[in-house]
Amino acid sequence: MIDPSRILADIDNANDLATLQQISQQVPELQIQITQQGRKANELGRIISSITTEITIRLIQLAEQQLGPPPVPYAWIVAGSQAREEQTSHTDQDTGLVISNAMRPEHDAWFESLARFVSDGLNSCGYIYCPGDVMASNPKWRQTQNGWREHFHQWIDQPRKRGLMYSSIFFDLRAIYGDISLWDELHSEVLQHTRGNSLFLAQLSSIALHHRAPLGLFNRFQLCSEPHADTVDIKHGGIIPIVDMARIFALETGVLAVNTRERLQQTAGSEALSHSGSQSLLAAFDFLHNLRANHQLRQLLANEKADNYINPKALCGAERKQLRASFKVIRSMQRTIKSRLGDGLLDE
Description:
By secondary structure, this protein is an alpha+beta fold. It folds into 2 domains: 4-194, Beta Polymerase, domain 2, CATH 3.30.460; 198-341, Four Helix Bundle (Hemerythrin (Met), subunit A) (Up-down Bundle), CATH 1.20.120. It has 15 helices and 6 strands. Strands 3-2-1-4 form a 4-stranded mixed beta sheet, with helices on both faces. The chain has a two-stranded antiparallel sheet with strand order 5-6. The N and C termini lie far apart (51 Å).
């Protein structure tokens, strides 16, 4: 039996990368254990994400032991599913650095060394390099507070398709180490700027509504082609659309929460989302997450790579009915957002 609290303690006591690598190898087995215990998928996400976060923090501390103290204050930020605390097992890394405006050009060498140490360490622990290079080791995402402020102002005030493609990453951020206030101040500013900003929200919806529920004529499942024939992609057709919609609701209403369930709960009853709409999306989100967790459990037990492709015919009648109902909720809510905010065409 793997004890998550023991894993966290072992991470905190690790003195080298090799030890962290060994600890990280327990994560898939822990995912199996948690799912077999019948615990909900949102609890699985919080536990797995907390391990990723603690490994990251320990790598930062080990780097500081080698490099010495930072020349100016900074905050290490994480994005995407880690920030939302919705990870399952190992994922790729999405990270950045918010550095004090007191930073001088000669300080960047220290922060570059820090970023490379941590990024390389995460990769060796199974958290692969981001394919899109959204990592603190990329100077574009290693910025002063003012540099990040410029990024967000450009994305919000002059939205372009290429910039808003980052919305699923950089509008889901959380600071995990250092001077957390550097990010908290920016986060509050960003929400003040997005709240009720109809132009930005209309543009954002054009990106957020890209992923559609896989339902066709007469609500039949739209199945994937080879190499995943006869399946539906439960991540891109179900989970991601809800995550994207919850992000819009939070940005529209100025809610600070980053976790998807918390966003849906805290925006319920607002102009953006009715109480009934919130309940419907929460039910769909929980069902889809739990369905995926059990699907991946079977794969891991069979020594197969976990994926997001589920064959509806392999489900029992009640599950298949609920899967279709969840997709119908997503489609309906997406239509409501499109009607209310539009889906503005964007320049590249």
